[in-house]
Amino acid sequence: MAQYRRLGFGGWGFAVISALGMLCFITGLRLTTVAHVAIIYATVPLVAAALGWMFLRERMLRSALVASLIALAGVSVMMGLGREGTLGGDVLAFGMTLSLAAIMVISRRLPDLPIMAAAALSALLCGVAALPFADGLAVSGADLGMLALFGLVNSALGLSLFSLGARYLPAVETALIAALDAPLAPVWVWLVFAETPGPATLGGGGIVFAVVALHLWRENRRQRV
């Protein structure tokens, strides 16, 4: 209970933003393709760099700004030319990306924030927000096991480790590490569910992945000099 009393305004902000991000993520996956969600999520390093510059006064290099604009162009190609996704799902995917970048900035700004308590509060808020839209509370044993696994691994363990690590790295570096997930998600879904990305998704996604990889390489080289 002591940890919950230490949350303060920043802890509640972390929990609310995290809950909104999870709601956007789950709903976005139902409305658009996994490839679209993953590609939009790949822009998180650039979103985090912008938020870090705005709220933490962390230096945002010109290369990051240029990379952000090119990545935005890639997402626009994917959303404007492709028919396999939906605008609503893509917007929700960007909402998830924005919330994750905000969590990085909060974790960086408040290194003493009790992460486990904030993550638990986030899960509770997410459940309460989703409850009015539930068709029923009864689920099968298999679904209950999958939900428990998702909650423990993705929400509890994943969010906690991510937030703890974000305390010790600049927001843009944390985001670049997180973006490594993006190229793998469409591959796994293609293997398991045979969801094949269309030409616009591949084209726009290629632009996003290329600019993020180039930005990561330039940042790593600059820091070594």
- Strand content bin: under 5%
Q: Summarize the main sheet.
A: none
List the helices and strands in order. Answer: HHHHHHHHHHH
First-last Cα distance: 47 Å
The average pLDDT value, as a whole number, equals 77
SS field, number of helical segments: 11
Shape: globular
Radius of gyration: 18 Å
Q: Which spans have pLDDT < 50 for at least 5 consecutive residues?
A: none
Strand tally is 0
Instruction: Estimate percent helicity.
Output: over 70%
SSE class: mainly alpha
Verbal overview:
This protein is an all-alpha fold and 225 residues long. It contains eleven helices and no strands. Helix 5 runs antiparallel to helix 11. The mean pLDDT is 77.
Summarize the helices and strands and which ones pair or pack.
Layout (H helix, E strand, L loop, with lengths): L1 H4 L2 H24 L2 H8 L2 H12 L6 H20 L5 H23 L5 H16 L10 H26 L4 H8 L5 H10 L5 H26 L1
Features:
225 residues; mainly alpha; 11 helices; 0% strand
Summarize the structure.
By secondary structure, the chain is mainly alpha-helical.
